[in-house]
Amino acid sequence: MTGRLMAIAALIAFLLGIVVATFSETRIFMPALLRGAAVTLQVAGLSFLLMVAAALTAGAAKTSPFPPVRWMAGAYIEIFRGTSLLVQLFWFYFVMPEFGVTLPAMAAGVLGIGLNFGAYGAEIVRGAIQSVPKGQREAATALNIKPLHRLVRIVMPQAMIIMVPPMGNLTIEMVKATSVVSAVTLVDITYASVQQNQIHYRTVEIFMVTLVLYYCLSQLIRFSMGVLEARATRHLCTGH
Amino acid sequence: MNWDWQFTFEVVVPRLLAVVPVTIQATVLSFLLALVLGLALMLLRISPLRVISIPAGEIIEFIRGTPLLVQLFFLFFLLPEIGIVLPPLTTGIVGLGIYNAALCAEVYRAGILNVPAGQWEAAKALNLSACRTYRDIIIPQSLPPIVPALGNYFIGIFKETPLLSFLAVAELMHASKLIGSEYYRFTEAVTVAGVFFLVMSLAAAALVRFAEGRIRGRILH
Predict the structure, then answer these.
(1) What is the value of ipTM here, to two decimals?
(2) Fewest CB atoms within 10 Å of the CB: B65, B88, B165, B168?
(3) How many Å apart are CA A2 and CA A12, to the nearest integer?
(4) Which helix (H) or strand (E) covers residue A91, if one does?
(5) Which of B73, B161, B173 sits opposite A190 (nearest CB)?
């Protein structure tokens, strides 16, 4: 597994080196692409934090014993999963000012992506929480542990093990989805490559660099999720 | 906030309704393309020759690891340069189809791997040809886990079609952007587009569950 990852990383670095070295024109468009990449990373990082927060909150709320809390979480999940991400981004950026809330482009992008993927994550969290055996909850109640404490200290650590792999896949999806933030006037790497392509007409080089950068990013996430998974399951004796 | 109902019903709704067929067409055609291409990719992926299966796996991984929007732009700018001039809608359908083919290939593969090895061995012991093994033994048994996953990809493709608006395909999102910039009223246009998506994706989900039930009943009678 690690060997394969290293091989892929080496291959990518090699290809990137070739691209940069072969086409001296990369001097022209690389700075713009890298500036775009910085914006992409920023959006992805902030959206990830919001996604995890929204997923944990809505997922836990969906298992709440109070029906109104469950309904609110359900409405949030259905609305954000049912409408398209692009529609939501437009809504946050162009429609919110009508309600008197003017968001900067970065905030609108992060809110849209974080809340959209948070809704998908909430279903993962709910499934993970519900798959923790009921006896664990009952034992915690029998030991007179408070509900919040029970959720955070007893249920969540066990749910984590089930949650991490699908959350990793969702994070990769989210990083890929950040490519639509140009809809709210952010110049991310995708939009930077379209702009550079219109100036320099070097379609293959520009887009290959962009695609490879995204690919590296998603492989990096896959790798770090593997590490996180190993950490979440370290106390289990699974025999390997 | 000033929501204009008259504007909503006289301009926004009719203009959005007019482009709903484009969105549906894009969804259905890309889904069909993804189903066929995905099957081809999967067959390459499970090939006994490592020279074929390893590159196929890496290609699938690369397509899955990069954003659809960038792939769409790449196709959109690349195809005319190499002399293939297609209307934007066709480019969009091809892009959506290729991206989802990589996802479908993994779904098919999971379904095939799910069939117990004993079934393969039994088919071999009964001296069935490769064609009959696949047609009568393997594929029918691999379908139950595949069908719901494919249904979810169908809904997924539907929700990915707004990306085609970046290629100036006249679909829902594009129409709503146009209305927004023509009248400088984004509130109604974007909200109604959102409602359209919500209603249509709920309808598509109901349709997929119905089809799933039918197909399941047919296979596991």
Answers:
(1) 0.81
(2) B168
(3) 15
(4) none
(5) B73
CA–CA separation, B192 and B105 (whole Å): 35
Domain positions in chain B: 7-219
CB A184 within 8 A of CB B177: no
d(CA A180, CA A87): 11
Considering only CB atoms, A179 lies closest to which of B70, B78, B186, namely B70
Q: Measure the CA–CA gap between A224 and A63, rounded to whole angstroms.
A: 29
pLDDT tens for chain B, residues 1 to 221 = 677 888 888 888 888 888 899 999 999 999 999 999 999 999 899 888 888 999 999 899 899 989 999 999 999 998 888 888 889 999 999 999 999 999 999 899 888 888 888 998 999 899 988 888 888 888 888 887 788 888 889 988 998 899 999 888 888 888 988 888 888 888 888 888 889 988 988 898 898 888 888 877 776 55
Can you say whether the dihedral through the CA atoms of A135, A139, A145, A146 is positive or negative?
Answer: positive
Q: How far apart are CA B181 and CA A34, in angstroms?
A: 31
Best of A84, A92, A198 to disrupt the B interface by mutation (most B CBs within 10 Å)? A84
CATH node for B7-219: 1.10.3720.10
d(CA A184, CA B186): 13
Contact B173 A218 (CB under 8 A): no
Tell me the angle at which helices B50-65 and A203-232 cross, rounded to the nearest 10 degrees.
90
Residues of B with Cβ-Cβ distance to A172 under 8 angstroms:
65
CATH fold of A2-232 reads MetI-like fold (1.10.3720)
Which residue shows structure tokens 């950490």?
Answer: A231
- Cβ(B56)–Cβ(B42) under 8 Å? no
Contact across the interface for A215 and B66, Cβ inside 8 Å: yes
Spatial separation of the C-alpha atoms in residues B209 and B214, rounded to whole Å? 9
Q: Do A193 and B67 touch (CB under 8 A)?
A: no
CB contact at 8 A, B120 and B159? no
Distance of alpha carbon A106 from its chain centroid, rounded? 16
Across the interface, of B67, B180, B197, the residue whose CB is closest to A83 is B197
Length of chain A: 240
* Token representation of residue A12: 């990518």
- Residue B198 φ then ψ, to 5°: -60, -50
Query: Angle of helix B88-113 relative to helix B50-65, nearest 10 degrees?
Result: 120
Per-domain boundaries in chain A: 2-232
Q: How far is A240 from chain B (nearest CA, A)?
A: 23
